[in-house]
Amino acid sequence: MDSKRQVKLNDGHFIPVLGFGTYAPPEIAKSEAQEVTQFAIEVGFRHIDCAHVYQNEEQVGQAIRSKIADGTVKREDIFYTSKLWLTSLRQEFVRPALEKSLENLQLDYVDLYIIHFPLAVEPGEELFPKDESGKLIADSVDLCHTWEALEKCKDAGLTKSIGVSNFNHKQLEKILNKPGLKYKPVCNQVECHPYLNQRKLLDFCKSHDIILVAYAALGSQRLKEWVNLDLPVLLEDPVLCAIANKHKQTPALVALRYQIQRGVVVLAKSYNKKRIKENIQVFDFELTPEDMKAIDGINRNIRYYKFLLGVSHPEYPFLEEY
């Protein structure tokens, strides 16, 4: 693979800088995930981002295996990420959760396994266990213990790399300062786009050789259960649109390119084939330093995915500045 299209993680493995996000509302995820993931691989995506909670790992795994079977790719060409859900953060549940994902995927290993959120909730089959008042039922888990279990999964060869998601810098620090730390997180996957550019968290991660992976890089999918629909639409921003016009590109491509040029690994999530094909064109142009500066200037700390369900959890990550 072209070296400009991947970056080295702190454990020596490489991650493609552009990833395909597979999340969709459950009714779409199950029926369409296989087809769109196969299509994404066909047009050139090699980094596939999924998670247990998306409930479509079976379909995404089928897509990957069918593209291996027909000779489009080899297993080692694909970088596959899965995520450990909140109900499995107790040390003893980590490996079984990863093994369950591998069983659903019908793969021998994942390339990256990350803690989806730093919020432990009551274990069980229910993905979002809630009390009578509709709040998530917290479980008290030391995430340093969760991390030790992830390190063991890496040593066992079930995952090549391990990382975190939705951690603030204090939560990252806790793991980095853990006595006897064997492996640092290779990444922190967080919401990141020109309206929430995460400059401070990005600088913190860079200083520890941790890659920032951006989700919601195009703003939000406007899903009412996750997102405040009164917020402005990122891709309608006049600055982004002007830069897009100048380069004869779309605002979405400018938003993706912005991340790649600042050293962020970026996920492009779409179930629309025309847009999936378009998103891979992020490598066909370059933004000028002036463009980058102009996009830096539209940051307004708008978080689309606040995960308010977890706001009363003692570990809720988004109350910190970064």
From TrEMBL:
<keyword id="KW-0560">Oxidoreductase</keyword>
<protein>
    <recommendedName>
        <fullName>NADP-dependent oxidoreductase domain-containing protein</fullName>
    </recommendedName>
</protein>
<dbReference type="InterPro" id="IPR018170">
    <property type="entry name" value="Aldo/ket_reductase_CS"/>
</dbReference>
<dbReference type="InterPro" id="IPR023210">
    <property type="entry name" value="NADP_OxRdtase_dom"/>
</dbReference>
<keyword id="KW-0521">NADP</keyword>
<dbReference type="InterPro" id="IPR020471">
    <property type="entry name" value="AKR"/>
</dbReference>
<dbReference type="InterPro" id="IPR036812">
    <property type="entry name" value="NAD(P)_OxRdtase_dom_sf"/>
</dbReference>
<dbReference type="InterPro" id="IPR044482">
    <property type="entry name" value="AKR1C"/>
</dbReference>
<dbReference type="Pfam" id="PF00248">
    <property type="entry name" value="Aldo_ket_red"/>
</dbReference>
<comment type="similarity">
    <text>Belongs to the aldo/keto reductase family.</text>
</comment>
<feature type="domain" description="NADP-dependent oxidoreductase">
    <location>
        <begin position="18"/>
        <end position="299"/>
    </location>
</feature>
